[in-house]
TrEMBL record:
The species this protein was found in: Holzapfeliella floricola DSM 23037 = JCM 16512
Photolyase/cryptochrome alpha/beta domain residues: 1-127
Protein name: Deoxyribodipyrimidine photo-lyase
SUPFAM superfamilies: Cryptochrome/photolyase FAD-binding domain, Cryptochrome/photolyase, N-terminal domain
Lineage, top ranks: Bacteria, Bacillati, Bacillota, Bacilli, Lactobacillales
Entry keyword Flavoprotein: yes
């Protein structure tokens, strides 16, 4: 028997590990491990993920092939599983190339070895894997553009359809044992009290992506920076859970969209995803350590009060506050707003980027460790190919440029809704008082100078 271990690859089609397992013609047991050390309290990213797991399982139940859930500490739960099923010959899984996922794969590989079970890991989550593209001297790229110039020349892996009939034939029926009952009960506990209902329907995701390609791609380069417009694909959360494969995203675009600058601009964004995966793989400490060593001694501020105001959207800067209130409520945040609020936290408030990265990791429904660390180290100027430290966003100017009529602000800060297009970006003192809107937590000019000095050291 072969165990196919599902993780953030919640689909049957174009699932490399599953397709390879089917090729062996061995009986297959589909397993999902709820990994105790990774569980969080009050986390929208976790809510979204487990709701997606539940929907995936519901879909499998419909074809009578439910997942087998195990729950517990990383090695212990697999040890129990392999003890219970000594007929297991191999574990097939799609691996992670960096961070905690990589560590966990190593641990389970060892457990498998102890049981004389083979472990086969497949690179599935990226178009070009972390170790597939290096500079001529075999060292990793540090700058995005030369990486992208080589990346775009490489052949991309094909989309593979799963042989569903063969899968149904090979997959073993549900095993009613305590180990799995415990796992299923844990999934129920994790999902039953989720207030927000997320859309994790593959058919709808495909329709929405096709609609993006047909109608919105053309304007992507100019619309993608405006949070009040529906200018981007909205695919990141479904790529994170693996509801849709990156190969499907790539080939649907390549095959259906005519050649254009907009198409290339979108492909370039997909490349950032691979770039940050590679950067994290070669900088395994990047979650806690600045990639640029010259910025490891910055005298960050650790003001819990200011940090909480940032989280609650009470900074007195309307675009920052609208973004953060919306984010707290939904777990979603437009890319432009991620840059604005991350810059505000790390430059205007001079608060350690690690605090922001951690909050995002718990709150973002599309949370992906490599992209999140990449984004935070970019915004705080500490990462590879990051924004230079002296490029400090002015939150008011960003608001005027990217939300010119204040549409986004009006939607999320209704008490400011009646201000003019000019005032909404920076209400005056009496407007703030009348509307109950806070004073600016920090003066931008002062904060800018403070950040420049902190970075110069
Ligand atoms: C501080 C900060 C934190 C971030 N954290 C994450 C995160 O945890 N998870 C995540 O997926 N993205 C993250 N990003 C990148 C980016 O904000 C999102 O990928 C994007 O907003 C997703 O929206 P979309 O799918 O509509 O993107 P589109 O513009 O439609 O882009 C298509 C796809 O390209 C990829 N992509 C686009 N921009 C980037 C980028 N800058 N870096 C990496 N991949 C990119 C994504 O997979 C995205 O789905 C972060 C950016 C910043 C500045």
């Amino acid at each position: 028997m072969i165990i196919v271990w599902f993780k953030n690859d919640l689909r049957l089609n174009d699932n490399t590990a599953l397709i390879e397992a089917i090729k062996t013609n061995q009986p297959i047991m589909c397993v999902f491990q709820i990994n105790n050390p990774q569980l969080l309290e009050n986390s929208k990213s976790q809510d979204y993920f487990f709701q997606s797991v539940q929907v995936f399982n519901d879909n499998l139940i419909q074809i009578n092939q439910p997942l087998h859930f195990i729950y517990g500490d990383t090695e212990d739960s697999f040890d129990k599983l392999l003890t219970q099923f000594p007929e297991t010959k191999a574990i097939y899984t799609n691996i992670s190339e960096r961070g905690y996922g990589l560590e966990r794969d190593h641990l389970i590989r060892k457990v498998a070895q102890n049981h004389t079970v083979d472990f086969y890991g497949f690179m599935d989550h990226h178009l070009i894997g972390a170790h597939e593209l290096l500079k001529k001297d075999q060292t990793p790229f540090k700058v995005f553009t030369p990486y992208y110039n080589q990346w775009k020349k490489l052949a991309k892996p094909a989309f593979q359809k799963v042989d569903l009939e063969k899968f149904k034939h090979l997959v073993i029926q549900r095993q009613e044992i305590d180990l799995f009952k415990e796992g299923t009960a844990k999934l129920k506990e994790l999902t039953e009290n989720i207030e927000q209902s997320f859309n994790t329907n593959l058919k709808q995701v495909r329709e929405s992506y096709d609609e993006f390609i047909d109608n919105r791609l053309e304007d992507y380069p100019k619309d993608r920076d405006f949070p009040s417009l529906n200018g981007t694909s909205d695919l990141s959360k479904d790529l994170t859970t693996g509801l849709i494969s990156i190969r499907e995203v790539y080939w649907r675009l390549v095959q259906h969209a005519p050649e254009s600058d907009a198409k290339q601009a979108f492909i370039r964004q997909l490349c950032w995803r691979d770039f940050y995966n590679m950067v994290y793989a070669y900088n395994p400490d990047a979650k806690n350590l600045e990639i640029k060593s010259e910025y490891r001694k910055i005298n960050w501020r650790y003001s819990e009060e200011d940090f909480q105001k940032w989280i609650d959207g009470e900074t007195g800067y309307p675009l920052v506050d609208a973004a953060m209130k919306h984010f707290k409520q939904t777990g979603e945040l437009h890319n432009r707003l991620r840059m604005v609020v991350a810059s505000f936290l790390t430059k205007d408030l001079l608060i350690d980027w690690r605090w922001g990265e951690k909050y995002f990791s718990e709150q973002l429904i599309d949370y992906d460790s490599a992209s999140n660390i990449g984004g935070w180290q970019w915004a705080s100027s500490t990462g590879t190919d990051a924004a230079p430290y002296f490029r400090i966003f002015n939150p008011t100017t960003q608001s005027e440029r990217f939300d010119p009529k204040g549409d986004f602000i009006r939607q999320h800060l209704p008490n400011l809704a009646n201000l003019s297009n000019k005032d909404i970006h920076k209400p005056n003192d009496s407007q703030r008082q009348t509307l109950g809107y806070p004073q600016e937590i920090v003066d931008h000019k002062f904060a800018r100078q403070r950040a420049l000095e902190a970075f110069k050291g």
